[in-house]
Design goal:
Length: 111
């Protein structure tokens, strides 16, 4: 992944309902969320963290399902161009990486 060093909280232990990869200068996150309607899903970005929350209520069976996950990304994501699609129970979020973003700062050593 280009040595970006993702924090350990990117994936929750024992959870395999999502896949994250980097391709063509963007991160692509696919999350399995069958049974939800796109209107029931909220995707938000806040200070390097992608939040996915959803709630589905089945009135006929008095059943309520909720989903909430947080994914931390490097802050080099182009927030204005994040996009999301939902098809066949799969939520796909595309997060473009800023081309001129720096992953760190070089500190000059005085001598």
């Amino acid at each position: 992944m280009g040595g970006l060093g993702f924090p350990s909280q990117l994936f929750e232990t024992g959870s395999n309902d999502c896949e994250l990869y980097e391709a063509d200068d963007e991160f692509v996150l696919s999350v399995e969320m069958p049974g939800f309607d796109p209107a029931e899903i909220d995707v938000t970005w806040d200070d390097g963290v992608l939040n996915i929350a959803a709630e589905h209520t089945d009135e006929s069976r008095s059943h309520r399902r909720t989903y909430h996950r947080r994914f931390r990304f490097p802050k080099s994501v182009d927030v204005e161009d994040i996009s999301a699609t939902y098809h066949n129970g799969i939520l796909e979020v595309r997060l473009p990486v800023l081309e001129d973003a720096t992953q760190g700062t070089t500190i000059e050593i005085e001598h």
